Amino acid sequence: MKFARYGKSYQMVIENGQDLSEVLQLDEALWGATSAPSHVFHCDPQLITALDQGAKGRVTCEDIKAAITWLLKQLPDKSKITSDFDGKLALADINAGDDSGKALTASAKYIHKELASSDASTISLAQIRSFLSTVQARALNGDGVLTAKSAGDNAAVKEILADIVAATGGTKDIDGSMGASEKELNDFLAAIPPFLEWLAQGEIPAGCDTTAIMTCGADTPALSALLQTHSAKIDKVFELSRLLAFDGRLQTKAMAPDAKVAAFDPANQDEVNAYLQALPFAPPNAESLLPLDITKINPLYQGWWQDVVNKIIKPLLGDQTTTLTPADWQKIKDLFAPYMAYLAAKKGGIVEKIPADKLRAYLANDALIAEVRKLLVMDKAVAETVRAAKEVEKLLLYRSYLIRFVNNFVCFRDLYAENSHALFECGSLVIDGRWFNVALKIDTIANHQLLAKSSQMFTLYVEVEKSPTDKMIVVVPVTSGSKGNLVAGKRGVFYDINKKDYDAKVLQVVENPVCIREAMYAPFSRLWGLIEGKIEGLSGAAEKNLQGSLNKALTPGAAPAPAPAATTPKSDSKMPGGTMLIGASVAFAALGSALAFITKTVSGMTGLQIWIGVLCAILALMLPVILIAVIKLNRQDLSSILEGCGWAINLRMRLDSKLRNQFSNFGIFPKDAVGTPRSFWLRNTLIAILIILLCAGGCHYRNVRKQQAAEREKAAQIEAEAKAKVEVIEQAKVEAEAKVAAEAKAAAAPAASAAPAASK
């Protein structure tokens, strides 16, 4: 069992039959998906039908396991099951030691015989479907339904099949025509005896005019149907009359109130009909008498009432009758009660449209029924052949596509592969100068966003117009580049997996950072948007005030605005103006102190220290933003997009830089094209290096100049110190000479005084 890294997840590598067998031992928690809607896969529809056992509308991991188990049972040589398949399956590769394998081989040989194939050693999907298409065009096509085509030239069979369809509704044949199945034949034949028995109960014996059921003779069915048309309306009149006899106040409520009469338009026929339908059959009265005079009956029912009076009431009650009492009405209903009970007890009613004589003939014609059943048996034999051919078709479908399907379910190798689409992708979108190579069909935007919002990806919801009446919505994740001009309403072109193009329009955008640069700028963009909104609000208010002042100034005769009342400013600290002034003063003082501190600090720093300080300040500001941006981008998860489409995903489908550029990329100019944009990365790099060298050289030059100045200062200081020492020495010398002179003078003075004394 081998695994590989796709994006930032590790998934199983599935390339051959041995890998398929190892899928059966793979823990379901390591599968890429455990369930997916069956309609999202763009592949042979019969493959999905075979995989979706039970037609539940979803393909599950158990369905995949069952398919793999069945395939490996029929093709035991796993080494021959690879992705490279030319569509021709050797019959020798089918398991001959298994009953199902023998049936598959026999069915394949039968298909070759029917098609008169020159090479009977292999079988292909095209051959199977060619055989099935010819079978479906036959009179007996194996679908269990007999049509007029199935009867051939037998007119009697055609006639009974037509009657069965008329009685039971029939079943649609593969060719689209209506026919009869075995069940419908049995239902038809089973309904005939009880229907004929019921029909016999209502017959009038020869020599008799009436019976207990046919109380009015042969006219009973027609008269009963006539009476039942509006008999409930008459019941309602007598019910209202009984209520009126109990409470006379109901008289005004039984008919339409005056307000309703005044409201409707007599010229509007629809309103007239609606008004009449709301009225009772006749005005109720406390005596519970229903007039036979049609002029006193609701106009909607006058024609029907005339027929009832002439055909039922007067023949039963006499021509002198002018009103109908509740007792008379009950007598009339009792007259037809046996026939109504007879109708309620009807059996085998599905065949009542067929003449009774024909039904009796069908029961007596055993040969005809046997012929129909023989055709059904022959059709059932064809059905067995078709079923066996369908099994061979399933084997070839699994052999052709199961490895690829598993690579779109157990793992998502096809999704991550370059220059190809997964089975569940719809195509690619070209918009805003970019290709977006992942597009998934969704039902509604709202339902998809319930799960997809946790993906943290920039997402487009795009409407693809295949035709004016056929539109679909796809979700497209944006994985590289930037937001650009991707906004709702922007149009582009959509290419399906067959490279057919359709018009596309962005319906909705879910904004999230696409790249690190956008994630870094996002906080500052939101801050700038807030500031911009405030500025626009202030400027809009100022503009309105200016316009108002200008309109007042230019409007002749406009009264000057009243001067605001003079108010004595208070020294209360709660005044907004005072608070703002104090706050502004404090802010300016703090700002001034900060600037003074910064200026003093910078003045004592070297150039290198200044550069390092600025760089540290930038890093202190940007490093958290960059860190948050990287975390957000790493959390973007494509699995949430799939889960919004109805998938059950096990993986966290995080994207690396390669996949981001693969799923969303810009157009590439031809190599030899002239005038295309060029890359200036070398020039920009050299400029950046030059700026760095200049900055470094400037710092070095400044340090050298500073060092030279320090050396000059030190030399001057040494020279000054030496000069000071010389001056001290000279001063000491002068002082010594002066001292010697003073001492000599002092010694000479006594000698001079002694000489005169001696001369005396």
Keywords, separated by commas or semicolons:
single chain, 760 residues, alpha+beta, 56% helix, elongated, membrane, Membrane protein YhdT, transmembrane, coiled coil, transmembrane helix
What does this protein structure show overall?
Helix 8 packs across helix 16 (356-364) and helix 19 runs antiparallel to helix 23. A hairpin with a 2-residue loop joins strand 1 (3-6) and strand 2 (9-12). The strands form 6 sheets. Strands 13-15-14-17-16-11-12-19 form an 8-stranded antiparallel beta sheet. The protein has a 3-stranded antiparallel beta sheet with strand order 4-3-18. It has a two-stranded antiparallel sheet with strand order 1-2. Helix content is 56%, strand content 11%. The chain has 760 residues and is α+β, with helices and mostly antiparallel strands. Among the domains are: 3-137 and 382-416, no CATH class; 217-351, no CATH class; 685-722. The protein has 25 helices and 19 strands. The radius of gyration is 53 Å and the shape is elongated. Mean pLDDT is 84; it is low at 567-577. The chain crosses the membrane at residues 578-598, 610-631, 680-699. This is Membrane protein YhdT. Residues 701-739 form a coiled coil. Residues 555-569 have a biased composition (Low complexity). Keywords: Coiled coil, Membrane, Transmembrane, Transmembrane helix.
